[in-house]
Amino acid sequence: MFRQLLEQSKQLTNHIVAPGLTPIDRGLDQIEAQTQRLLRRSGAPGQDPLAAGAQGAAAPAGDDLLYGAGSVFGAGSGAGAAGVGALGGFGGMQASGAMDTSAAAPLDSRTAYMLAKQGFDADRVSQTLAQIDLAHTFEPLQGVPDADIDAFLRNEHENIVSVAIEETKAQVAADFETSFEQRLDRDWTAIKKRIYSEMGHQPSASSVLAGAGDRSLFFQQGLTDMSGMSFSGGSSSMLQPGSSRFGSASQPQQGSSVGGMASAGGIAAHPRHRAFLQVVKAMNDARIRKTPFDPVGAFGRIAFDLAADSQQTMIARYWPLISYMLSGTEKGLAKIPQSHFRDACKAAEDPGMSEQATRYRFGLAKGGRSWLEKSYVEWTAEHVRSQLVELGGMPSVHSEVDALLRIRFMQHNKWKLPWLDITISSGKPFWAHVFTLVRMGLRSQAYEYITRHQGELAKSGDRNFPTYFKAWMDVPDGRLPKAYRDKLLSEWNGGIRDYPAGPNASPKGDMFKYALYKIIGRCEMSSKTIRGTDVIATIEDYIWIHLMLVQEEVLPTDAAHERFTLRDCSLAMQKYGQAGFQNRETWFMVLFLCGEFERAISELATEAAHSADALHFAIALAYYGVLRVPDNPRGIPMSGANLIIRPTTLSTGVAYDVAYFHFAKAIVGFVRTWGQTDPLDTLHYIYLLTLCGAPLDSVAAPSSASASVRSPPTAVLAGRDYARFSHELVCEFVLSVHGRFPEMLGQVRADGSGRTPGHVEVYRSLLFLSTEHDYLQAIVLAAANQAHSESRMGEAIDLYHLCGQYDRVLVILNTILGERMLQQTALMQTDAMDTTASHGFSSLSAATTPQSITKVGTTDAALPVFSIDTDPVESTERFMQFYQSRPTTAASLSAKTVKTSTMLVQLSRFRSLAEQGRDEPALKTVYDLGIFPHSDDIADIPLRVESFGELDEVVARVMPAVMLLTMQCLHNLYRSWNDRRGDGRVEMVRQRAKGLLMFAGHVQYRISGDVFAKMNRLDVEMV
Fold it and tell me: Were both Cys, which of 140, 390, 634, 748 would link to 860 (CB 3.0–4.6 Å)?
């Protein structure tokens, strides 16, 4: 029976399957899966699968052979089942299980309410969603026969393209959102930095080891991904590829951070800052004496002795690098004067190839190589000792090198590198030995070792190598003579260049020989490094071989691909960025070795734990004149960065960005951080700004070296800008520290014989202020003017007194008295004169802001402490008495100022008596000044009016209030004496009131209408 059913089923496909094709046998599992699939496809959406299967029995006979029902590559039950899963594409994935769409999840009440509120029928929406069947999304719209392979592949291709497009769109959208968020966060971080910098706020620095005691002068930035720089496979314990021979600095632990704001105790509570401060003080003292000072050695010793963690230890190792790059030796800067390298550094900014710039950059590259070689020597000795290797009875450098090579390349008494050439030196790797000596900077010892094996070299076909090495060693710039280089290149092209092999293949020759030929002859300069971690094992080795290939002097005969200067090396390293190296400390070293001092310090400053080191690295470089700074110290980039970039094009046509470190911004950040807790110590850092400055009276007569960089006037003007900026910063800082004028600016001695100099005056020569007059004008008088312009009258008085502007002191006091009397004018607009008088100076004092009139100390030992906010009249009298008692000060006072002060004091006393109701003494006081007429004599009034025009403006402005108060006093006396009509005093009061009113009429343009109206009303009441 089953056989008959099988035959009948085969007949159903005769109109579809082409004759001649082998029929496909399917297993029961396949048939069941495809049957279920056919039921789901033929059934109505939302219908039960079994019911749909019952209705699907009437479907066309050929529908069960549509694409997805099986695999044309299947044969038998096992193969067929595998074919469905493996080659069925999306259809195969759908065949694994049925997607039940018969019932939709019920809508919750909030969803139904929301849909109903928007005008949607919740039940209909639910039914519509339930009818959507995603199981057939990737199936063809028209059936594909099993035998139509082209249609199958075409449908698969279309499905893959559609999915790829959708996934790409989704990925692009996600990448855009991620990039947008990153840029938004970066821009917001930069804006916050700029705002914090302008406000002087330092946010707490994260990721700083507890106890380090460093506070960030620059704002903390997030760390980027720092992966090791891997040149090829392979690893070893100490010589890890991409690692530093100094070791890896451990990352700071989270949660152990030191706050970024000033802590209790100031600098004294932070040992590293305190020690750095002592060096800065010693350096400033040496600058005053104009004697050489070695800040690099001093800072380096402190950094190494007080290193709190492995990161700071790594940074401490880099301090001698400055000395090597600038002088060639570790202690070569001890006798170098300040700004010794400034002209050469300025010349190096030029995109051209001047002789001075070439020598300067050549010295940097050579010094960097020397430092790397010395570091390698120290590491080799330490590494050999740590491995307890026997060096023999009389250890030498050769025995030490042999020991190092055995540690690195020997295992079980056999050399583990098959390509090592051990035929020349009796079973020892000759080329590795010579290369190690060159890597250690011991070229003489290397040549001695080469000549010792000259016979063996001749037998091996390398008879010319000693000649090449000697010629290369004797040339200072490492440029091999052309004749020798041509021979060397011939040998190189004869087979040595083919030594390197693929990633998984062994080299064809000794790679140390390959490295030596490459260095000596600068062969194949298109590739600056050497494959394999056996030769180039660390980042130090990698940067060393680049510096060995640097050639600063570019000859016209040099090919374009052979030109490789220090700036080209810098560009090559910057392409990697920090992410290409192990950590920020190593990246700092790489930038420093490339002569990118500004970029290196800027990178270091982003780490809160290294902010102090970054600042003092900048100070040491600025001392020698090798730190490039912007011409304008006031310009702060909008991004809040520490660098200012100036794009340029080198003479070789290569684009190069010259970086300038914002030294002024770093100093200002330090001042804002520590200024309030340690003002006198902070001044030492302000004096460092003039390391980049020039005297204000300097003549623009530069040397020929700087003429190629920029015009001499521009260089001098830039230095003057830094000098002026330091003066402005000192003034602003002095005013921000209250009550420290005697310590910071000085004090006049009690006997008036002179001044005791303050901190700033002692170090005035560092600010390019050679004379006392220059100091008083540029610092003290400027600070006094600034305080005066900011209405900080107490401080302005103290500073004007210190710089000998005694007349200016009385002028300010007169202004204060006049302003206080003017503020009473508003209170006299009412008719209640007694209420007005009762307010008096107490109302005025309450209205005066504490910033405008403050209690100050004194910059004169003999001058009593004054307080103009409580009793300005008494303070003015004290100053007048003090000045007039000394001939030197009395001679500087003008008669007009003294007269004005006397009048204001008398007018103040008049007001005080009037407020107390003592009208007769008050009137006597005001009439004794001779301003108002004593009667209504018509001949006397014009004379009084003419004298009134000669009064100081301060006195003239208070006259309306004084006239009104005088009239009130006369009115009070008239009312009290009204019962004594025959008394002559009543008539005198009446005449004075009439004369005062006539006087006021002549000067009515200086009197407001309401005041004149009140005086008229009072006069009428006395008739």
Answer: 748
pTM: 0.69
- The DSSP secondary-structure symbol of 781 reads I
Per residue, the 3-state secondary structure of 357-401, as one string, reads HHHHHHHHHHHHHHHHHHHHHHHHHHHHHHCCCCCCCCCCHHHHH
Q: How far apart are CA 391 and CA 279, in angstroms?
A: 42
Residues 6+ apart with CB under 8 A from 627: 345, 597, 598, 601, 618, 621, 661, 663, 692
| H or E element, residue 645 | strand 643-649
Residues in contact with 848: Cβ distance below 8 Å, sequence separation at least 6, in sequence order: 820, 869
**Side-chain half-sphere CA neighbours of 729 within 13 A:** 29
Chain CA centroid to CA 531, Å:
37
Here the contacts of 151-154 (C-beta below 8 Å, separation 24 or greater) are 151/67, 152/67, 152/72
Tell me the two tokens of residue 383.
């590494």
**Amino acid identity, position 221:** Q
Strand, helix or coil for residue 655: strand
Give the single-character DSSP code of 108: P
Q: How many residues can be counted in the chain?
A: 1023
The Cα–Cα gap between 980 and 274 comes to: 83
- Residue 105: DSSP 8-state: P
Which stretches of the chain drop beneath a pLDDT of 50?
44-103, 200-243, 245-263, 638, 699-713, 825-826, 828-857
Residue 778: predicted pLDDT = 92
Backbone angles phi, psi at 1000, to 5 degrees: -65, -35
| Dist. CA 738–CA 676, nearest whole Å | 9
**Which residues sit opposite 661 in a β-bridge?**
643
Residue with the two structure tokens 């583990």: 416
pLDDT at 756: 85
How many C-beta atoms lie closer than 10 Å to residue 591's C-beta? Answer: 24
CB 726 within 8 A of CB 691: no
d(CA 177, CA 180): 5
Indicate the residue type of 641: A
Ramachandran area for residue 917 (φ above 0: left; ψ -120 to 50: alpha; else beta): left
Tell me which amino acid residue 638 is: M
The CA distance from 455 to 444, in Å, is: 19
Closest to 623 measured CA to CA, from 279, 369, 354:
279
Q: If you ran DSSP here, which 8-state letter would residue 487 be given?
A: H
The torsion defined by the Cα of 376, 381, 382 and 387, in degrees rounded to 10, comes to 120
Q: What angle do CA 798, 803, 807 make, to 5 degrees?
A: 75
Three-class secondary structure of residue 687 per DSSP: helix
SS3 state of residue 132: coil
- From the list 201, 239, 242, the residue with the least C-alpha distance to 220 is 201
* DSSP-based three-state secondary structure for 156: helix
DSSP 328: S
Q: How far apart are the first and last CA of the chain?
A: 148
Which helix (H) or strand (E) covers residue 644, if one does?
A: strand 643-649
Residue type, 168: T
Backbone angles phi, psi at 218, to 5 degrees: -120, 155
Give the per-residue pLDDT at 950. Answer: 81
Contact (Cβ atoms closer than 8 angstroms) between residue 268 and residue 249: no
b/e map 100-122, b = 16+ CB within 10 Å: ebeeeeebeeeebeebeeeeeeb
d(CA 898, CA 806): 11
H helices of 425-480, in order, are 430-439, 443-452, 454-459, 465-474
What is residue 290's three-state secondary structure?
coil
Inter-residue contact 910 to 926 (CB < 8 Å): yes
Distances (CA, A) of 590 to 177, 546, 595, 885: 35, 11, 9, 69
| Chain Cα centroid distance, residue 828 | 57
Q: Coil, strand or helix: which one is 862?
A: coil
